[in-house]
Amino acid sequence: MRVVCAVVLLFEAIVIGLFIPVAISLEGMEPATAASLWGGMAAVALVLSGLQKRTWAHYAAWALQAAFLFTSFLVSGAMLIAVVFVSLWVTGVVMGRRTDEMKAAHAARAEAEAAASGDGGGEGSATTASPRQTR
């Protein structure tokens, strides 16, 4: 899950950074205001992308998604882009959790099969012969 979230944040940082010239040229926003608002958000997204292994960074990224959604009201047409990225974030979290659960279930099943198949660590239970090895 954390890898998918990090990738979404990385691409989101690029898009947030591209809001700066759009806000300046289309909305007539002051360059310092646009750069501090979306430039700061883009920098935070980059930092949080690298820190997704930490739980607090994951929750901070949720706050960043909310900030991205709310600031998209300031630039016309940005709401659609913000909704797309927030949707990607939510999808990444949901699908990532499902994938993590499937990996954990598979590992538990493999461990249970290994424990049930033999004496739990003898010579024969360490590896099983594949079809290639029996030929």
From TrEMBL:
TM helices/strands, residue ranges: 7-26, 32-51, 63-90
Which keywords has UniProt assigned to this entry? Membrane, Transmembrane, Transmembrane helix
Q: Which InterPro entries does the entry link to?
A: DUF4233 (IPR025327)
Q: Does the keyword Lyase apply?
A: no
Q: Name the Pfam families on file.
A: DUF4233
Query: Region Disordered: which residues?
Result: 113-135
Q: Where is the composition biased (Low complexity)?
A: 125-135
Recorded protein name is DUF4233 domain-containing protein
In its UniProt entry, the species of origin is given as Nocardiopsis tropica
